[in-house]
Design a protein that fits this description.
Elements (H helix, E strand, L loop, with lengths): L5 H8 L17 E7 L2 E6 L6 H16 L6 E6 L7 H4 L14 E5 L7 H14 L4 E5 L7 H4 L18 E3 L2 E5 L14 H13 L8 E5 L6 H9 L4 E6 L3 H4 L2 H10 L4 E6 L4 E2 L6 E2 L6 H9 L3 E4 L4 H8 L4 H4 L4 H27 L1
Parallel strand pairs: 2-3, 4-8, 4-9, 5-7, 5-8, 9-10, 10-13
Antiparallel strand pairs: 1-2, 6-7, 11-12
Length: 360
């Protein structure tokens, strides 16, 4: 008579992809425990989300996979919950370690490219600094770094210590790090995933950030392995999703939210960029990409709508000049929109701090 082992079951579970992702549930840390007694197998999974459709799909996939292991006659799937603050003790995500001196980590993400995520991340970081906070900005888009250009320091080069630690570039009161500081204008980054993540880990762990109230991480667009691995490296205090009102962008918002839920990082809310265009001479509003799509999506997903950024030529022009609108025209309606969003984000970060303290 065949007798199934824990290793047999884990090997089979390693073939089960997490719903919506390319990585398997073992690699993502969703498998919390495996027990085998005779022909009975009990698997405890921690999906990192309470969405019924994800939980149901995961339960079905796990049960089917384990039942196919020779020697297993009865399968019991237990779905556990991993509330914020408990996940580190309950799952393999405990590789995350706080960054010395960094009080909060804010991840800015988007389900797809072209929605102005980096523009939002840069101006949000500057708005947080303008409110009196000590802020760092990590450009995690290794293939397409844009922060050095947007901040007006494309030729800056960080200083290194003898121990290969990195001093961030200081600009407009922010501590900055980006792959763009280590490349010339024509150098393409043609690397596979492991090399990319090695660089990102170095930016997180080997940069001398000093004392920061908030470290803003400008994530690459999308929800692939690189983004997921990044948010597994450090405890993210909260995540913000950037979208535009158009349907093609909104379709990817849920994927971005699911990414944060997978690693038990709180979703602070949604920012809608390029919300509308207002004619400067006639004050007529045009909803170029649709109307209030981000607000509706936030309501449907049960997250906060943090605010809308208008489609303004000055925002684009100021980024091209290396002087973001928060600096170039701090009294403009666009800058006021970023400042209002920063207030909401900071309030949400502080609530997240309190929630984590209460749980611990």
């Amino acid at each position: 008579m065949l007798v199934a082992t824990i290793d047999d079951i884990r090997a089979r579970l390693a073939q089960v992809r997490y719903p919506g992702y390319q990585r398997d549930i073992v690699a993502l840390g969703a498998v919390r425990d495996v027990e085998v007694v005779g022909g009975r197998a009990r698997v405890t999974v921690t999906p990192g989300t309470a969405k019924p459709e994800v939980v149901a799909a995961l339960r079905t996939a796990v049960e089917s996979a384990v039942r196919s292991v020779p020697g297993v006659e009865v399968v019991e799937v237990v779905v556990g919950t991993a509330e914020h603050g408990q996940a580190a003790a309950a799952s393999p995500f405990d590789e995350r370690a706080p960054l010395p001196g960094v009080a909060r980590i804010l991840a800015v993400a988007s389900g797809k490219g072209g929605v102005g995520k980096s523009t939002v991340a840069v101006n949000l970081a500057l708005a947080l600094h303008a409110s009196g906070r000590r802020v760092g900005l990590l450009d995690a888009d290794i293939y397409g770094p844009s922060v050095p250009f947007m901040m007006g320091v494309p030729d800056a080069r960080p200083r290194m210590t003898e121990g290969h630690k990195i001093f961030p570039v200081e600009r407009h009161g922010l501590a900055l790090i980006s792959m763009g500081f280590f490349l010339d204008d024509k150098s393409p980054v043609i690397w596979r995933g492991p090399m990319v993540m090695s660089i990102v880990r170095q930016f997180l762990k080997d940069v001398i950030w000093g004392t920061l109230d908030v470290l803003v991480i400008d994530l690459p667009p999308g929800t692939g392995d690189a983004q997921l691995t990044l948010v597994q490296q450090v405890p993210v205090t909260g995540g913000v999703i950037v979208t535009t009102p158009q349907d093609v962008a909104l379709q990817d918002v849920q994927r971005g939210i699911a990414m944060f839920q997978t690693v038990n990082a709180p979703i602070l809310g949604i920012v809608e960029n390029m919300s509308y265009y207002e004619c400067p001479s006639c004050a007529t509003r045009e909803d170029v990409f649709g109307r209030e799509g981000g607000r509706r999506e936030a309501a449907a997903l049960g997250v906060e709508f943090l605010g809308e950024i208008p489609l303004v030529a000055e925002i684009r022009a100021s980024m091209d000049r290396g002087a973001p609108v928060m600096l170039a025209d701090p009294t403009s309606p666009a800058a006021a929109a970023f400042a209002a969003i920063a207030v909401k984000v900071m309030s949400a970060l502080e609530r997240s701090d309190q929630g984590a303290t209460a749980v611990s």
